[in-house]
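Morning!

This is the sequence you dropped in the shared folder:
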Amino acid sequence: MVAQWHTIVSGDTCSVIGSEYGVSIEQLQKWNPQLKSDCSNLQLDDAYCVKGDDMPDSTSSSYVTPPTATPSGTTSNCYKVYLLVKAFNN
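The structure's back. Tokens below.
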């Protein structure tokens, strides 16, 4: 899964962002733990993770750069891209 980022613009709320990306407020808070429970601390022009990863760290990964500054505390799961390889038996 590749992480996705959303840069905050005027009028954005966690509900609006959640609807746009099909995620819950709980998921947004998991990927962006600095968010208050009411999401009142969204910062204009900061990028927030809207699609993170819940995979264990044992999978190979590389980093994905957000499109703009992120608030401190954004979870590292939003910076990783996982490469999964399925083995086929001949």
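Headline: Residues 4-82 form a domain with the Membrane-bound Lytic Murein Transglycosylase D; Chain A fold (CATH 3.10.350.10).

More detail when I'm at my desk.
O.
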